[in-house]
Amino acid sequence: MTAFSAEIVKWIEEAERQAEAKFREIDSIVDRNQWKVIEAFQKHQVSDYHFAGSTGYAYNDRGREVLDLVYADVFGAEAALVRPHFASGTHTIATALFGVLRPGDGLLYITGRPYDTLHKVIGKPGDGTGSLQDFGIRYNEAALLEDGTIDWETVASKIDERTKVIGIQRSRGYDWRDSFTVAQIGEMVARVKELKPDCIVFVDNCYGEFTEEREPTQVGVDLIAGSLIKNPGGGLAETGGYICGRARLVELASYRLTAPGIGAEVGAMLGTTRGIYQGLFLAPTAVGQAVKGAVLAAAVFERAGFDSRPRWDAPRTDLIQAISFSGPEQLIAFVQGIQRAAAVDGHVVPEPWDMPGYEHPVIMAAGTFIQGGSLELSADAPIRAPYTAYMQGGLTYSHVKFGLLTALQTMKDRKLF
Ligand SMILES: *Cc1c(COP(=O)(O)O)cnc(C)c1O
């Protein structure tokens, strides 16, 4: 076994003891979500034949139809669209937005600049790419206030009669801000609906699923979207995304995914069905393992003298743990160190690269079974000040613990602290 410095091992052990009560809290969320998922499976009498998969048009694929019903129940929504045909989280979110917005309508993001990969989905008027703005959808955003809360004055001033969709990003993404809890999102919905009763509230739910006992669709949100290679895929779903919400809105999104008039009634599952069901079954537990790992990371790095967000004992509503470093060398050593604990590609040394959809070079540790799967232990960092690494995931808590050991050891070996 790799020799870890005694000092680093001691930090980890102390942090684990410190976090014990927090771990019990996480266990109780796992239990509630596990039973919620089982109850939804039972209500719809999920059986072996639902996993069979389908080919061609796949009319009447009962496994696919029941999967939508199970997801709708788990998320407390009227309807759901769960498909391997969504190529990524960005594609899923774009499908939801294009599904409900029409030329001349307004989209207003109230949680500041959205996640990097959405910038080109929003695009610019006349950019010729078929982006939202290229299609004549008007986009606006309200930056968050200094303290990370919603700037309601600006929001109120930017809502007009054509504002159709209010966008909320639950997770911090690549920003040094706090993520929004489901309770906070519920308060936002109430306020937004006072300002514009007929608007559609959309939540980018990426990384949030099963970190709390409720989902945004259970506090009045009209439409949510997320990726199956993040939380709800449980590490087993090989690809895909989901959209949940009000039935008419989900139907509109389905027309955008396939074609008007066809919607959710076709779409061969090509052998992905079992993994998506089983992944959903495992998701509450896998998310719990990852969240425990994130808590440990915060506690350990706080001990080592680094700034972390959220703090180890703060409430959690997503998987992401941001850790702040003093420069690119520490940042790169951390990410390369995380990779050293991977079962897959543990021999590979990640380097910064210009990743499609991102505006700065990004370095990523991703020793994963599913390419880019970020419910598995991974770490990303855009190479830009303030040199923050975002780590997330971990199908097993133990793997995260080793990732932290190898990361700290790599930094120590390079004399970076
Ligand atoms: C991951 C993520 C996305 C985009 O998902 P991809 O699968 O990377 O396209 C969008 N928003 C947030 C907050 C995310 O975390």
Automatic annotation (TrEMBL):
Pfam families for the chain: Met_gamma_lyase
InterPro entries in the cross-refs: Met_g_lyase_put, PyrdxlP-dep_Trfase, PyrdxlP-dep_Trfase_major
Listed name of the protein: Methionine gamma-lyase family protein
Gene3D superfamilies named in the record: Methioning gamme-lyase, C-terminal domain, Type I PLP-dependent aspartate aminotransferase-like (Major domain)
